[in-house]
Amino acid sequence: MDKLFTSFKLGQYTLNNRLVMAPMTRSRAEYDGTPADLAVEYYSQRAGVGLIVAEGTQPSDDGQGYLMTPGIYTEAHVAGWKKITSAVHNKGGHLFIQLMHTGRMNHPDNTPHHRQGVAPSAIAPGVQMFTASGMQDIPVPRELTTEEIHNTVADFRYAARRAVEAGADGVEIHGANAYLIHQFLAPSANQRCDEYGGSIENRARFALEVAAAIAGEIGADKTAIRLSPGSQIWGINEGEEGPALYRYLVAELNKLGLSYLHIMHMGNEVLLGELRALWTQPLILNRPGKSRENIGDDLQSGLAELESYGQMILANPDFTCRIKTGAEMNSADPATYYGGGVEGYTDYPVMQ
């Protein structure tokens, strides 16, 4: 437990502790993607953790799939994020913005431009998505052309630069949870016949190009990536080559000297150990559903340098204090996760 509260050097930054707030979609931005003023309070309340990874943020119009998610590619977006990063820094915290292109996890009703979603291949995920008019089937996406893939890499690069201009300490590339980069990795979503489909090397190409482009734009020490090896949500299936694909991908990413790798662990302990051995930079580990009693175990074992938590930090703005003192935790309210206002967002009680 004591190791949780030691400082840690992450690139050029010194984090106050080894606890990380995981990125969590909250769907409370303005319709144009500008973070709402209430987000300033939400993130600053939680600045006691060593690092905040902000919610998934679209790098372009086509990157949006959900209602009311923030962007980071217009002047208004940058101005909104500046308020958030300043508030977090004023409390001694650090914040990376997660760049999330949802790809086929999209419904036209959720976006201002109402365009069809884009993906590696024209394959629907076979699930429904929440929209303003209720749950609807996700439509078949449009397959990206090779030129559009290159343009999408450029969109990620531009968004990363805007994030740094907005005061973010860096960006985390969302390569997990069935979104665009993950879709390229999985044969169930990627049946291309060009250099972005087929072999392990080809399916990993887009992720590696995005990471290299961003690192070249803002510096490798400000660039990170999140992966979820073995995840099978929303029609994603990485197939029998899945473990080999991640061994290749992580080894190639490691050559870029990125700030950190953030793994959402899906249960394959053997693969996790193999990826740890291949990765020589800091590792953030997220174990969904991990109990309070096990907080700090992965630091103590040496498997990870930092541990990330989602719902517990969502419901406990003073998470670090509660861990230190053994105080009871607030329970998160799933009914208020997405959309709305203060309730379930900035009104969770703190210790007196």
Whole-angstrom Rg? 19 Å
**Share of helix among residues?**
25-40%
Q: Within the largest sheet, what's the order of strands?
A: 3-4-5-10-11-12-13-14
CATH third-level topology: TIM Barrel
The backbone outline, from C-alpha atoms, is globular
Strand content: 15-25%
Query: Can you tell me the CATH superfamily?
Result: Aldolase class I
Family: Belongs to the NADH:flavin oxidoreductase/NADH oxidase family.
GO cellular component, one term: cytosol
Keywords: Oxidoreductase
GO molecular function, one term: oxidoreductase activity, acting on the CH-CH group of donors, NAD or NADP as acceptor
3D architecture notes:
This protein has 10 helices and 14 strands. The protein is α/β, with parallel strands linked by helices. It has a single domain, classed as Aldolase class I (TIM Barrel, Alpha-Beta Barrel), CATH 3.20.20.70. The strands form 4 sheets. Strands 3-4-5-10-11-12-13-14 form an 8-stranded parallel beta barrel. Strand 7 (128-131) and strand 8 (134-137) form a beta hairpin. Helix 1 (38-45) runs parallel beside helix 2, helix 3 packs parallel to helix 5 (200-218) and helix 5 runs parallel beside helix 6.
